[in-house]
Each structure stands twice: as structure tokens, then as C-alpha cells.
Specification:
There is one protein chain. The chain is mostly helical and 204 residues long. It has helices at residues 2-9, 12-32, 38-50, 57-85, 91-98, 102-115, 118-125, 130-139, 144-172, 176-203. It is built from ten helices and no strands. It is elongated and about 55 Å long.
């Protein structure tokens, strides 16, 4: 998060030179290794861009984030396909499996069978929904071309959603760092709320 704090106070020229490449790299890594809070990164970058005077700052955040997410997803799916074809699997395939609980995977397989490509778009917007659907696509032996065709609008919708959260945070506060904090808090709440709700329902 140090990059976000620095970006919110850095001169515009510095932000343009370092901010977009850093955002691209972090979102790409987050797509491959799903421990980086990519939604919070995009929202925070949108807050910073909202307070910039340079033209097309928000458009550059959108293009950077959606492209990085798309390339990361496509790479992970390709690695997963290689693991499915390998007799011994792969660590990438195991990483996907470990983050796709049986219950979520069964739901993803059912929805994928009923609705096809459109499920990919929703999976990117639902917290922790991306990997179960990706694994369901792998198990259904979707070709790379079909996955990419469905994942492209999914990444666009994902980038727009989290950028709008950032714009909201940026519009509510005068200082960029305040908007960054608000955007991060909001994205964290959105990501943990479904899990908490499921726990409450199972305990009831």
C-alpha cells in the first residue's frame, strides 16, 4: 500500500511515469497470485486519477487495470490447462483448486452449464467468484479461445466497477489520501461481506 500513499501525494508527472506501470504490474500479479487486493488497487488508483488535472487519467487507469487483469487471467487459465493435461498436474492448477471450495465449485459448474460465457462476467464481480468459475471452465475443457472471449468483457466490467468505487471516494473527500482510505475500506467491506453472510446463514 506504500505505492498508493506515495501516488496520492506525488506530482502528476511522477504519478504518470510510475503509477500506471506499477498498477499494471500489481494487477497482473494479483490475477496470477490471488493474494493482492487488486480491487482496492484499482479503486485507489482511480481516486488519485480523479484528483489529477491531466486529461484521460481515469481512462488510462481503466485501460491499464482491465488489460492487466485480462492478461493475468488468460495466463493463469493457460497454465491451468497445461496442468489439466499433465499427468502430475501443476502448482498453478493446485493453487486454483485450493481457492475453489467444493461447494463453490459445484455452484460454478451448475451456473456455467446453464448460462455459459455470461457466468464469467459475474464471476469477476462477485468476491472470490473468479477462481471457482475458472476451475469449472477448466474441468469443462473449455478451449482457450472460448475462455478469452468470455473473460474480456468480464475484465472490462470489473475495472469499471472498482473504478466507480474510486471515483465515489475521490468525489467525497478533498484530499486524495482520504479518498484512497475510503475506497480501500469500501472494497474490503465488499470483499468480506458475502463470506460473513454465508457464515451467519450456516450458523442460523
Amino acid at each position: 500500500m506504500s505505492w498508493l500513499a506515495a501516488a496520492s501525494t506525488a506530482p502528476e508527472s511522477t504519478h504518470q511515469a510510475l503509477g500506471y506501470p506499477s498498477l499494471f504490474l500489481l494487477v497482473l500479479i494479483g490475477a496470477l497470485v490471488p493474494v493482492v487486493p487488486t480491487g482496492a488497487l484499482v479503486s485507489s488508483a482511480a481516486v488519485v486519477a480523479f484528483h489529477q488535472t491531466a486529461p484521460f487519467s481515469l481512462a488510462l487507469v481503466f485501460v491499464t487495470a482491465s488489460l492487466a487483469a485480462f492478461l493475468g487471467d488468460a495466463t493463469l487459465y493457460w497454465l491451468g490447462r497445461r496442468g489439466m493435461k499433465s499427468k502430475n498436474g501443476s502448482r498453478w492448477l493446485e493453487a486454483i483448486r485450493s481457492r475453489a471450495p467444493e461447494e463453490r465449485l459445484a455452484q460454478a459448474q451448475e451456473k456455467l452449464a446453464d448460462h455459459g460465457v455470461s457466468v464469467l462476467v459475474l464471476s469477476r464481480l462477485v468476491p472470490a467468484g473468479r477462481l471457482p468459475v475458472m476451475l469449472a471452465c477448466l474441468m469443462a475443457k473449455w478451449p482457450m479461445r472460448r475462455f478469452v472471449r468470455g473473460n474480456f468483457p468480464a475484465c472490462l466490467a470489473w475495472a469499471v466497477t472498482y473504478q466507480l468505487i474510486g471515483i465515489l471516494g475521490g468525489s467525497l473527500f478533498k484530499e486524495p489520501w482520504e479518498g484512497v482510505v475510503a475506497a480501500v475500506v469500501l472494497t474490503v467491506v465488499i470483499s468480506v461481506a458475502p463470506g460473513l453472510w454465508r457464515r451467519v446463514r450456516s450458523a442460523a
